[in-house]
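Journal club side-thread
Mid-discussion, someone asked how the predicted structure for our own chain would compare to the paper's figures. Pasting it here so we can look after the session.
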Amino acid sequence: MLKSFKSFSHKAGLDASILYTISSRFIQSVGGILTLFLITRFLNTNEQGYYYTFGSILSIQVFLELGLTGIITQYVAHEFAHLKWKNSSEIEGDAYHKSRLASIVKFGVIWMISISIFLFFVFLIAGQLFFLKYNNELGVRWQLPWMFLSISTCLIVIINLFFAILEGLGKIKQVTQLRLLQQVLQLVFIGVFFVFHLNLLAGGIAMLLSTLITSIALVISGNLKIIFTLFKFKMQWKINYRKEVLPFQFKIALGSMSGYLIYQLITPVLFATQGVVVAGQMGATQACLNGILIISLSWFSTKVALFSSLVAKHKYRMLNLSYKKNLLISVAVCITGIMFFIVTVWIMRQFFPSMGNRFLTIVPIIFLGLTQVASVIGNAQAYYLRSFKKEPFFLSSIIIGLLSGTATLLSSKLLGITEITMVYFIVNGVIGFVWGCIIFKVRAYEWTKINRWF
């Protein structure tokens, strides 16, 4: 039995880090379904609209984070490829690369702590302006829940930076264990707080407590000490931020902002134009589809350090083999998950309408699901090409993001939800997907000189 499982795990590309990541994402997805059940039990449809709109607005952090968390892992991995572990907490090797490693760590920590403090005040102001203007007459008590969520999100920004550094250092398994712990704690807390009728407060308090406990676990595990040691390291050589990091970060940041226009803008726009009920249905549907997307991309999110290391060592054939294998698995998982979700929603709408009606109808879900399949492929291509410390999707992501944001704003005022999701699919799942594939084929060959993919 154990031998058969190991054989299956090897064929499916399931190493320990992926298993922990999938477990974390699975719990996140199941937690989303359980949370939705609790929402139908303890929140009305208006409060559901607020609940999911909160998350979409909090995602504006990408405008201030400027993509740094996403690229820290790659830059750390590129330097660490020339170093090695002396023991579980000490790094040894070439002084030049160790010094450059320390410089990128120090820069990232200072940047993120400063940004998170500023971000808190941005959230408070943005929340006040938006929620006082739209649907405030419904009498939903959103002020205190919004404050707790703002605090928690700012703390998570810092924790995610620490995780990004550790992943670049090859501690994928340890990071995925901590993320799993955070997901389990948040799920347990939110269930308890809903049962105790904290309503909209449940999400914010659960997120805050789970983040604080995860932070304590990070300290106890000794992993935070590694970052602190690098932070204090006396640097003789530094990464030139303006020449080496900023050009790449600038492109990633604009790409992340475009991602917000593509994936997050639609819920608050529906909140403002079509009401809290439709916004809540969109939020619940996207929460489940995003859970499927995140699980599907587990095979790539755990390979950032590996891909970056292979590029640094010019092992392009190994890079391509890993990419192909993980892409096939990721797409298969995504399609299977979306089909299961569609069938589940159809069954709930037929036999459990009180819960099924909290989602969008089937046709809009199909359009959103097809877009997610395209997104899995697009994200996989981005993981691959960004391991070269370049951002070839810069122009396309900006244009598609602006086009998607504009289409969302216009269609939400003129069309119904089915037509809105159809327009969304055409822009992102067709135009964006085809453009991205063309860029990938051209750049992958240009940088590796390998033309065969399948």
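Post-session note: The mean pLDDT is 83.
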